[in-house]
């Protein structure tokens, strides 16, 4: 079986196609220029229907997090405990993504902590997740 894979619809297809390439994409309204995520048919600010995919850096900061100790899907049994978080994107003001935090001790995560996107391969695609921005060590990026 394995963990669930995303099922893109006509509005979110660009997002998942980007994730499969290792890029984080959100929507940007052509009219009021606001960023938006998750993708939808209309701009939530001005109801404009012309929204364009916008690639962002994947840098962000932690807004809030919780730790799940119980698997609500059998294929997540090996993943608990895991961290579910809301992340504010640095270069897409107003966008707050519901995601997972990986490569981090949940107890050491603090609001405002700098994070960066990372992609977990799943099926033919990938799931955007976030991890603490690692300090430069030994030349590794
Ligand atoms: Zn708009």
TrEMBL record:
Residues 16-46 form the ChsH2 rubredoxin-like zinc ribbon domain. Residues 56-120 form the ChsH2 C-terminal OB-fold domain. InterPro entries: ChsH2_C, ChsH2_Znr, NA-bd_OB-fold, Thioester_dehydratase-like. It comes from the Bacteria. Pfam families: OB_ChsH2_C (PF01796), zf-ChsH2 (PF12172). This is DNA-binding protein. It comes from Peterkaempfera bronchialis.
């Amino acid at each position: 079986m394995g963990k669930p894979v995303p099922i893109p619809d006509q509005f979110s297809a660009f997002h998942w196609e980007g994730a499969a390439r290792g890029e984080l994409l959100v929507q940007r309204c052509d009219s009021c220029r606001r960023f938006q995520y998750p993708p939808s048919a209309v701009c939530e600010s001005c109801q404009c229907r012309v929204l364009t995919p916008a690639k962002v850096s994947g840098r962000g900061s932690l807004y809030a997090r919780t730790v799940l100790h119980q698997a609500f899907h059998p294929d997540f049994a090996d993943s608990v405990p895991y961290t579910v978080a809301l992340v504010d994107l640095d270069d897409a003001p107003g966008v707050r993504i519901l995601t997972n935090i990986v490569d981090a001790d949940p107890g050491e995560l603090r609001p405002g902590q700098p994070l960066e996107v990372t992609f977990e391969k799943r099926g033919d695609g990938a799931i955007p997740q976030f991890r603490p921005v690692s300090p430069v060590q030994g030349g590794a990026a």
